[in-house]
Amino acid sequence: MYSNLPPSQCARADDRPLVFGHRGARGHAPENTLLGVETAIRLGADWVEVDVQLNAGNPVLMHDLTLERTTNGHGFVADVAPDYLAGLDAGRGQKVPGVLDTIELIDHRAGLNLELKAAGSAGVIVRDIRHAVQVLGWDWSEFLVSSFNLQELRQVSALEPRIPIGALYAGVPLDYAASAEALGAISVHLSHEFLAPNMIEDARARGLAVYVYTVNHPVEIERVRALGVDGIFTDYPERVLVLDRVA
Ligand code: G3P
Ligand code: MG
Description:
By secondary structure, the chain is an alpha/beta fold. It has helices at residues 7-10, 34-42, 82-86, 99-106, 122-134, 150-159, 176-183, 197-205, 218-227, 237-246; strands at residues 18-22, 47-55, 58-61, 111-116, 143-147, 165-168, 187-191, 209-213, 231-234. The chain is 35% helix and 19% strand.
């Protein structure tokens, strides 16, 4: 179902929102693992969202700053030795993948939304995306780099303006859409808890796609679909898609 167009152009192309597998497919597989990414694709996700931390300066898939919640390791992901990280179990025998491992696994079957969690990651993310485009044949539009840290996104754009960026908001700043527009983002990523029609209108008027996170309950999925969002982050991609399959 993935269309090789920028998200702002292919959003709702099939009269449904784009489906972003959240942390892979967190409802079915360990988060931020290759098994989770593969599961999201097999469930029909258009995009896969993963969180990115730095380990010894290199980007790896991890939500938290520390290893305890999602692996059998201890300490800060940024500080442990790469060999130590490589030996950890991230659930069901999965390893903590690097960003390039993830790009190779996806192999154009879905878009890749890299959510930057760590300050100072712009340079290495640009490096890996450039590699994917220049060596592996990916298109810039198959990537979407997002972050709550808008300053990090500004650095990504300064280094490589061809990488699409999406501005993440935890709350709703008064100028959320204007600041995303000023940043040159293609999308705003908003919490479903706060979503209201005027927020969608504000973003749309500025040419921004509206993606909402993290929507898992079928009733809530229906509510945000009815509001007309362009994309939904979910731990259960099939819950967004099932309605279209039976229609
Ligand atoms: O990118 C959307 C969503 O993943 C943001 O929140 O905490 O799940 O990374 P979080
Ligand atoms: Mg995330």
